[in-house]
Each structure stands twice: as structure tokens, then as C-alpha cells.
Specification:
The chain is an alpha+beta fold. The protein contains five helices and eight strands, in the order ββααβββαβαββα. It has one domain: Aminopeptidase, CATH 3.40.630. The strands form two sheets. Strands 1-2-3-4-5 form a five-stranded antiparallel β-sheet, with helices on both faces. A three-stranded antiparallel β-sheet has the order 6-8-7.
Length: 202
């Protein structure tokens, strides 16, 4: 049995469902909202790539690399995907990424709560030592989102990966360590309260 298993994670705004073939069409619809696959620095699947994207993710789950569809609780609409990958089971250190959302879900509480659910599960239930994040040096939106979570930059792997357009990417690495999690959790809960409708902060 893998260290990480397929599990449903439910919050107030979203539910994270383990990815399966029934998510292909809802994700295909979600990715057309914003068309972020057209960004040269992003690893977002196009509608045509969605079936292979999902099937590969399902195969990866057999190795403990668990992918999730992000579903809005209010409407049951699928608005994106995220996953644990390159999971180092021995050292209890997963990477968290392959995250993308429909444009309509951006700048809402969706990403904040999704990350809260994932990090809370892996730190509190699975006793992870650290969680790692990686992104393209030029993907400033992703870097800002990761830093907003409370992750700290570890460094940059230069000329690390060949992109689909043939360019070579520098990869920025961030992490959250186990002893940092309580502060990061408080930060996420605070940001989430600001994102939730009908809340007042003084």
C-alpha cells in the first residue's frame, strides 16, 4: 500500500475528488475557460490532451502520485486539477503541483482552500517532513501563488527542463517544512476567511 492513497478531501468551498475517467469531459470544459494551455511557460493540458492527461494521472496513482479534480461544493462544477507527484515515500516528501484552474475560479478561495486541504492531510495525517513546489522561472502568477501560501524559495535549477515549445526552463523550487506548517496553516485560514463571502474582518 502506498504512503499516499486515493482519498476525498472536502472543505467549505471545494471538494477534491481523486481523478478518474469520468472527469475527462468536465476538465475539458474547465480548461477552455481561460485557455491557459496557450501560455508558453505553463504545463496546462489542452482540451485535445485531456484524455491522455487524465489517464496518465490515474496510472500515476498506482505509484502513490495522487491527482485530484477540484469541484465547487455549491454547484458541483469541476474547475481544475491538482496533484501530489514525485512522491518520496521513504522520506515522506511529496511534490505538490500540476495545478491549474478555470479562469472563473482564479482569485477566489478555490486555490487557498485546495492547498489547505492537501497540506493539512499530508502534514497532519501522513506526517510529511516537507512538501515541495516547482514552477517555471517566468511563471510569475504561479510563483506569487506559491509564495502567498507561505512556502519559501529553496533555489533555482537552471536549464532544468525542455519545454514543449523547445525552450529550456529554469525551475524555481519552494518548500514548506513540517515545523513551518502550523504558521502556514494559520496564514491560509486567515486568507481563506478573507476570500469567503459574507465574512467580516476587523
Amino acid at each position: 500500500m502506498s504512503w499516499l492513497e486515493r482519498i476525498v478531501l472536502r472543505g467549505r468551498i471545494v471538494t477534491l475528488d481523486p481523478l478518474d475517467i469520468n472527469h475527462i469531459e468536465p476538465l475539458r470544459a474547465a480548461v477552455t475557460d481561460g485557455e491557459y494551455w496557450k501560455l508558453w511557460y505553463a504545463n496546462v493540458p489542452s482540451p485535445e490532451q485531456m484524455e491522455s492527461y487524465v489517464r496518465n494521472a490515474i496510472e500515476g496513482a498506482e505509484k502513490g502520485n495522487i491527482a485530484f479534480a477540484v469541484r465547487l461544493n455549491e454547484t458541483n462544477k469541476i474547475v481544475g486539477a491538482t496533484r501530489f507527484y514525485n512522491v518520496d515515500e521513504i522520506n515522506k516528501r511529496p511534490m505538490l503541483g500540476y495545478t491549474w484552474y478555470a479562469k472563473s475560479a482564479c482569485k477566489t478561495g478555490v486555490n487557498t482552500e485546495s492547498k489547505l486541504l492537501l497540506l493539512q492531510h499530508v502534514f497532519e495525517q501522513k506526517e510529511a517532513i516537507a512538501v515541495e513546489f516547482r514552477t517555471h522561472y517566468f511563471n510569475q502568477a504561479s510563483r506569487t501563488a506559491i509564495e502567498r501560501l507561505g512556502a519559501k524559495q529553496d533555489g533555482i535549477l537552471r536549464s532544468h527542463q525542455i519545454m514543449r515549445d523547445g525552450s529550456v526552463r529554469d525551475t524555481v523550487i519552494y518548500s514548506i517544512l513540517q515545523h513551518e506548517w502550523p504558521s502556514v496553516k494559520n496564514n491560509l485560514l486567515s486568507k481563506l476567511s478573507l476570500d469567503l463571502p459574507g465574512t467580516t474582518n476587523i
